Amino acid sequence: MDAVTYPNVKVFDFINANVVPIRVPADSKPLADDFKLTWTPTLITLDYYGKEHHRTVGFLPPDDLIASLILGMGKIDFDAGDFNDAIVHFDRVLAEFPQSGFAPEAVYLRGVSRFKASHDAAALKEAYEKLKAEYPASEWAKRAEPYSLL
C-alpha cells in the first residue's frame, strides 16, 4: 500500500482530515500482540478509548481504503448508540463509493441504524430490498434476508 494507496492524494487528504494514523510494524511488541497483528497491512479503526470497531486485512486500493475508514467511523457511532451520526457515515459510503466492497455492509448497518433510531421495521425491509437489488451476492444480503418477512 506504500507504493499505491498511501501516496494517493485523496487518501492522504482524507486521512489528514479525519483520522489519527498510527503505523505499527507487525513484529512490534506489545502492540502487535495486543491488536493480534498477524498479517500486513492490517487496518484497525479504533475509537477515542482504543476500542476496536472495524478491521481490514490485506491490500486496499485508494477508494476502498477511504470507504473502509468511513465505514469504520460509522461503526464507532453505531456501537456508541449514535445512530443518526452513523447513518451519515453509511450514507457517505453509499454516495461516494457505491461499488466498493464495503457498500453492502453500509446498506445493512444503515438499515439497522434507521431501525434503532426510529423503531420502524420498514427501515430493515428497505435495507434488504436494496441489498437484494444492488448487492444480491453479498453476505449482507443473506444476513438481511429475514427482513423480507417484515
TrEMBL record:
Pfam family name, one:
TPR_6
| Membrane spanning stretches | none
Instruction: Check the record and name the SUPFAM superfamilies matching this protein.
Output: Thioredoxin-like, TPR-like
- Source domain of life: Bacteria
Keyword vocabulary terms for this entry: TPR repeat
Q: Which residues form a coiled coil?
A: none
Q: Which stretches are TPR repeats?
A: 67-100
Protein name in UniProt: Tetratricopeptide repeat protein
Q: Which organism is it from?
A: Geomobilimonas luticola
Q: What is the lineage of its organism?
A: Bacteria, Pseudomonadati, Thermodesulfobacteriota, Desulfuromonadia, Geobacterales
